[in-house]
Write a structure and sequence with these properties.
129 residues; mainly beta; Substrate Binding Domain Of DNAk, Chain A, domain 1; 4-stranded antiparallel beta sheet
Length: 129
Amino acid sequence: MTVKFDKTKHKSEYSYEENGANWANFVFRRHVTKGQTIQIGEWFEDKEYYPDSDNQEKAVVYVYASTEKEPIHTTDEGCFCIGQFDIEFPKSGKQRAVKVAMRFGGTEIEVRGVVGNTGKQFPKNLRLL
């Protein structure tokens, strides 16, 4: 994901400036932390993701895991992509966020994106190897 650049956390090579603001790319956003106890089969923590621009209508959400407890970027050692899924943002409205939640169980992670103002769902099962 892309967030406001923080020089105390983010690698400078992933920073860029747009419209007077500094941003960081390839940021790893944790939904669960290594070693955290969770209930198998329960949906875990909706987190909101927003489009990069007012005209963005679609996005690919990449789901990463890490062998490390606190990765900062998806390119950090121990990080790997376990899958991806497509979402569509609403064409208009104040709430254009998509909430992403995960459900863990056995050898799969079920991921869903839910569009904030329409309730439209984008589910995907990701198989863990």
